[in-house]
Amino acid sequence: MFMVEPRMLKPWLGIILLFVILFSYAEGAFVGVNIGTDLSNLPSATDVVAILKAHQITHVRLFDADAHLLTALADTGIEVMVSVTNEEILRIGQSPSVAAAWVNTNVAAFIPSTSITAIAVGSEVLTTIPNAAPILVPAMNYLHKALVASNLNDQIKVSTPQSMDLIPRPFPPSTAAFNSTWNSTIFQMLQFLKNTNSYYMLNAYPYYGYVNSNGIFPIDYALFRPLSSVKEIVDPNTLFHYDSMFDAMVDATYNSIAAFNISVIPVVVTESGWPWLGRADERDATIENAETFTNNLIQRVSNDSGPPSQADIPINTYIYELFNEDKRPGPISERNWGILFSNGSNVYPISLSISDSVNINSSGVFCIARQDADDKKLQNGLNWACGQGQANCSAIQTGQPCYFPDTLQNHASYAYNDYYQTMHSVGGTCDFDGTGTITSRDPSYGSCKFTGSSNSSTGGVFQPPASGPVGPSSQGSRVPVLGVGFLLVIFLYLVMADVNMFTNL
């Protein structure tokens, strides 16, 4: 038996810490969605979950803790962030027993069937209901203690979404700081997040950043479009180049946190999006801009990198929002942030692929309906495929795995492909009066498998369900096994070499 002096352990402690950090950030970023319910034709909770599955959405944020939705989300693998409403904060922040009751009713009652991974305490409390500021952190503390009492604190994090309005001058990011009016509350909040290993929730909207900039920033900067050399956005203090306003907003938040001399707290963007329709004076709220922003946001988040100052911390993001909330007050744009209509169809095309890879079936191709096809021709093609064409259309019937999205485009695609896969070897085509087209990408999604699929496709920006919550980066792409394994082998080799050295002393 040998003894190792404490001073000899210091280098190894550093190496061990390095590996802990490596594995902490080994998981990639995810893209989730917010689900608002302020719409007149809200689908049932069961239908909402079917829509989520159809679009392979695996992370959602609820603006409350709706029992129907939480029940419907059970055993789906979808990770859920529930919310304490602003109206509930006052009571929770003044009473530990009320906080405990809230956790028991809205969280513990649904665990473990429903994968609840976070509690968002209020929404932009400091900038929308400043009178509640004194009880915000106490409310967070009481909820956390209730989770500890239920042995759920390791699985479920507590935080509170804040607006970018909390940072008066976000550019340049290197000099950004929180509004000093809230210094005491913010310091307590950051200490809480650090002590509980939680994360900062940020609502970041480049749409408002662009609209309110009065032309200072180009719209390409807000939409993640490439900037010409003369328009590049550079922080004069750090010389960091910012390709998007989104990155600059996240970096401004990191620098505002750093101003309190608190070590890095990961930032999760709980809301970001772009309205697709607005009034005449809301000229930037267009379907083209919304499509560009959303698809580019998805691609940006999926590259698993952070902003320039924290490049190794992926930016987990929730898109605002799933459905258009037509009952919301305010300008037209307020009611048109949804990426889907309530029947599950897309408001605009969304690229579900986070890479250029394609999934090839055994025949190499699939037959789907054209995006720009005439509805009457599509209906005729669908009727023919399911009738005279003898396609098996049972999967697109009500309650079946391919019924949602309940759109002519989706149903025709399934029927066209089933016919084509069966008949193309004996002369069947994918024409359908010009409404069909061939693709090498497997159109399968969730539990809906198109004929000819290898059944191994899990593509899509909304990643496959996680096996369990693992903190703010609980789902997404993994560090290559070979890379981590190689580092681990080197680490163990060095440990053994050092042990041998000590043994021989």
Count every beta strand, where a strand is a DSSP E run of 2 or more residues: 13
Structural class: alpha/beta
Rg, nearest Å: 25 Å
| Strand ordering within the main sheet | 5-4-3-2-1-11-10-7-6
User: Which sheet architecture does the biggest sheet show?
Assistant: 9 strands, parallel
Poorly predicted spans: 1-26, 352-363, 456-490
Beta percentage is: 5-15%
**End-to-end CA span:** 12 Å
Shape: globular
Number of helices: 15
Q: Which series of helices and strands comes N to C?
A: HEHEHEHHEHHEEHEHHEEHEHEEHHEH
Rounded mean pLDDT score: 84
Indicate the percent of residues in helices: 25-40%
Protein name: glucan endo-1,3-beta-D-glucosidase
Transmembrane segments: 479-499
Keywords: Cell membrane, Disulfide bond, Glycoprotein, Glycosidase, GPI-anchor, Hydrolase, Lipoprotein, Membrane, Plant defense, Signal, Transmembrane, Transmembrane helix
GO biological process, one term: defense response
Characterization of this structure:
This protein is an alpha/beta fold and 505 residues long. It is built from 15 helices and 13 strands. The protein has helices at 6-24, 45-54, 67-72, 86-92, 96-106, 125-128, 133-149, 183-195, 206-211, 219-222, 245-258, 287-301, 375-386, 408-423, 481-503; strands at residues 31-35, 59-62, 79-84, 115-121, 157-159, 161-163, 200-203, 233-234, 241-242, 267-272, 317-319, 366-369, 436-439. Strands 5-4-3-2-1-11-10-7-6 form a 9-stranded parallel sheet. Strands 8-9 form a two-stranded antiparallel sheet. Helix 4 crosses helix 7, helix 5 packs across helix 7 and helix 13 (375-386) crosses helix 14 (408-423). The longest helix has 23 residues, at 481-503. It is globular, with a radius of gyration of 25 Å. The relative contact order is 0.13. The model is unreliable at 1-26, 352-363 and 456-490 (pLDDT under 50).
